[in-house]
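hiii, so i know i said id send this last week but things got crazy w the move. better late than never?? heres the sequnce for the chain we talked about at the cafe, plus the structure i predicted for it. fair warning i was half asleep when i ran it
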Amino acid sequence: MRVGVVVFPGSNCDRDCAHVLSLVGATPEFVWHRDTDLSHLGAVVLPGGFSYGDYLRCGAVAKISPVMSAVREFAAAGRPVIGICNGFQILVESELLPGALMRNESLSFQCKDVDLRVESTATAFTAGFEPGTELRLPIANAEGNYTIDERGLAELEEHGQVVLRYQNNPNGSVGDIAGISNRQGNVVGMMPHPERASESRLGNAVGRTFFESVLNFVS
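okay and structure toks below
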């Protein structure tokens, strides 16, 4: 399966994601931010980094790039899209996912491993886990504080859209939320970096399950 990895000016985890996709048997294809044809792809990854230098707000410029119109159509057709870290910020800015990602409560950049719990396996990227699975993944962000109003939070909980939850909240996210999905489960945004924990040589390979899950979802 061909999986598109979108490259914005300032992306820095695109090659990491492509590497892991190759490891799990996918054919990664870099998609430049000006490209508009995703029809030949089975899934799309919006990687971490600092798209357009994170000017204005994280993801605020990326959301108006040509590729994002194609990503919206791709997602609307029920096809799988994941945004990791900056990619999650872009999905929120693009209104493909609800809420906002604000400055960390500590007002500092957080770069460390965090403990998480898988809350939903009803998504294209978490179907390979068992509900309640506990895992450890790295984060690297300054704007990872997920924020949504009370009504929005209630709707996320009611419809099972909370995908990952922090065990020790590192950034102040409401409801300890580390990742969410849309109601259909084909669009997922998460702040932790699974691509940085996908090989045993790194001491942790649990992250590759996110990528393996989408291959099985599409096939």
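btw The longest helix spans residues 66-76. thought thatd interest u
miss u guys!!
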